[in-house]
Specification:
Elements (H helix, E strand, L loop, with lengths): L2 E10 L5 E6 L10 E2 L2 E3 L6 H13 L2 E14 L3 E14 L9 E6 L13 H8 L2
Parallel strand pairs: 1-6
Antiparallel strand pairs: 1-4, 2-3, 2-7, 5-6
This protein binds 8-OXO-2'-deoxyguanosine-5'-triphosphate.
The site of 8-OXO-2'-deoxyguanosine-5'-triphosphate has 16 residues, from strand 1, strand 4 and strand 6.
Length: 130
Amino acid sequence: MKKMVKVVAAIIENENGEILCALRTPEMSSPNRWEFPGGKVEPGEDIHTALEREINEELSCKIATSEVFCENVHEYEKYTIQLIAIKAKLTEGNPKTNEHSKVIWMARENLESLKWVPADVPITEMLLNK
Ligand SMILES: Nc1nc2c([nH]c(=O)n2[C@H]2C[C@H](O)[C@@H](COP(=O)(O)OP(=O)(O)OP(=O)(O)O)O2)c(=O)[nH]1
């Protein structure tokens, strides 16, 4: 069986109802694809704490997380990821691109125009229907 990796991703919505999307760099795995910012949960770490830590590292800003929006298990070639999308709001700072090529705010109805990492596609579809 492939290794299972637990990943948290933030669905950060601003006051205009737009959602924060981040572009992976050419050097990362799944290069030049869009994702929701976040990362791997460390052993023993709570999912909300993990997401707050990842957002602080990646975007130099603070968030307040709320409910889990959805979970998706996706099999990549080398491992399987359990992707947990969690709703959040920015509480401090503006997102910076410490690790990504770009971050943008996007209206829900336009999310499908971006080229997403495969595990995120069902999440973008769910966001469109809510
Ligand atoms: N942050 C984030 N990662 C995602 C999403 N969808 C998805 O498949 N992933 C994958 C990419 C990575 O392999 C892994 C997250 O790991 P990470 O962001 O901590 O990155 P990493 O450098 O440790 O891992 P890697 O890119 O070398 O595989 O989950 C998503 O929406 N957000």
